[in-house]
Amino acid sequence: MLSLSWLYKTLTTRLISFAELSRVYPSFAATVNFTVGVLTALVLKVTSL
Fold first, then answer.
1. Angle at the Cα of 37 (from 31 to 39), degrees rounded to 5?
2. CA distance 23 to 48
3. pLDDT (tens digit per residue) in 13-35
4. What pLDDT score was predicted for residue 2?
């Protein structure tokens, strides 16, 4: 079982860097939103098993 705090820390770090990127590259934001949505769905599916 992955450590949830590690997972949360990793995800928030990634989200912060994504936010920085999307500020620099506005067209990147749509891809980020899609990726975050998919990752959230995967995490929810895995944790519900």
1. 100
2. 33
3. 877 777 776 677 777 677 878 88
4. 61
- Give 42 or 22, the one with higher predicted confidence: 42
- Report if pTM > 0.70: no
Distance CA 45, CA 33 (A): 18
Structural contact between residues 30 and 18, judged by C-beta atoms closer than 8 angstroms: no
CB atoms within 10 A of CB 42: 10
Phi, psi of 14 (to 5 degrees): -65, -40
DSSP the chain: ---HHHHHHHHHHHHHHHHHHHHH-TTHHHHHHHHHHHHHHHHHHHHT-
